[in-house]
Amino acid sequence: MKISTKGRYGLTIMIELAKRYGKGPTSLKSIAQSQNLSEHYLEQLISPLRNAGFVKSIRGAYGGYVLTKKPSQITAGDVIRVLEGPITPVEGIEDEEPVKRQLWIRIRDAVKDVLDSTTIEDLAKYREDTEPDAYMYYI
Q1: pLDDT score of 53
Q2: Rounded distance, CA 122 to CA 114, Å?
């Protein structure tokens, strides 16, 4: 299974919105700048997330996007499924020998368990915990 840039950047959008949850809308431009990503590409990804009901847009000079649910209620699996489709390690496992089919099913289930038990809130907190604080200078 390979997660494309759609899934990875989609998670980035959701993490950034989760970090600003309850603080008003966030523009895609600010997310693109802070993460050094293409704003145009993020615009393409936000539409399916909006259609799935995870984000809504706020118009106006100080507009942008906000999460429609608490970050603790949206999982990484939700986002990946919207942007990437079903989670499968390989195509056509029905045609595999039974022993290999069982392996692919176990791998699929393990990946699903991780994605479905990891919330956007978890990812936002992890990212905050791992980002370095201010630079320290030693003389």
Answers
A1: 96
A2: 12
